[in-house]
Amino acid sequence: MNLKLKAGICGVLFAFASHAALAATSPANFVDEASAKGIAEVEAGKLALEKSQSADIKTFAQMMIDDHTKANQKLKEIAQGKNLKVATDAELLDQAKKLILDIREDSFDRSYANNQVKAHEETVKLFQEEINEGKDAELKAFAGETLPALQKHLEEARKLAAAHGGDAAKQ
Questions:
Q1: Cα-flanking dihedrals φ and ψ of residue 85, to 5°?
Q2: DSSP three-state, residue 3
Q3: How far apart (Å, rounded) are the C-alpha atoms in residues 36 and 39?
Q4: Looking at residues 84-108, what average pLDDT do you find?
Q5: pTM for this prediction
């Protein structure tokens, strides 16, 4: 491949990456993405309470429901105070279902634990980006207050994945 073509491709990729980074740090995008991920945690937790037979999975699932419901409510209040559009419950539930599709029936506990590791890795990254690059002080503060709980969730999810034969337990 010639040098000009390589440089052109790199330029296009850099432009896409820059646009994605800027888009991810807008207040509206953060609220949208964080809300969807939060609802996904609640819904996956409800599913785990229903389908799992393991006490550790059920305890973790209840923690997800409690913690993420509380965080979702706080985020919704902040967003409404800033006149940011908050997705409807139906829209969020639709997005959430897409985030939890990889939970399989063959070994629910293993699939749920793996899903929780992956979901929390993504959510921790989203909140870290908001803290570092966000444009809204109140949302950055929310992200900073919420991040330690998300990191604890990730640590607990990794333990669950290891205990239930998951492959996502590795850091």
A1: -65, 125
A2: helix
A3: 5
A4: 68
A5: 0.77
